[in-house]
Amino acid sequence: MALHLGDIAPNFTVDTTDGEISFHDWKAGKWTVFFSHPADFTPVCTTELGRAAALRPEFEKRNTSLIALSVDSIEDHRAWAPDIGEMSGTALNFPIIADQDKVVSHLYDMIHPGEGDTSTVRSVFIIDEDNKIRLSLTYPKSTGRNFDEILRVLDSLQLTSMHTLATPADWTPGDRVIVPPGMTTDDAKVRFSNVEELKPYLRYADAPDSE
Ligand code: BEZ
After folding, report:
1. CATH number of 180's domain
2. Is 199 a member of any domain?
3. Tens digit of each residue's pLDDT (9 = 90 or more) over 153-169
4. Contact, 53 vs 90, CB < 8 A?
5. pTM > 0.85: yes or no
């Protein structure tokens, strides 16, 4: 069954480079970026895991853990890890799931047969501290992900969880935000500063944290 935004991320128990974990227990109290890659010892994946490792302090600031998955073995993950550190300058600092039996990959629909073989595509799930799926992205094997964009989306998700607002195209923290449809401009003026009505349906305001 397809997973949708707002669904509870399915729990699983699995072997990782940091030992066996039960997913919900492992992530307890934190947001999580859970992402799959096609295979160990492949070039794009090496750059992706290195970039994620380099950005880990930024994810930590946002109370967010990282965890990767492929259908390779623990032995392969452990043998590959030094290459990630060597190529990116940051040692691998989060677990990689060894999903050799593909149970988790199927649970999260990470295998897309049209993409060449039965390994995982580049799926990303952002899951909140209540285990709800808040974002899902799917990239083909040939296209590496932009982890700065994943951080940017996380910032938007966390801001819009705390306040009734939306973020516009290309928003980054500190930019003005959007008054959501359903909130009157008068109500927005009570909640936010510098509300500006460009169209009756397009209203900007200062982000609460930037006041
Ligand atoms: C890579 O990570 O470089 C890769 C993996 C599978 C297909 C294409 C590229």
Report:
1. 3.30.1020.10
2. yes
3. 999 999 999 999 999 99
4. yes
5. yes
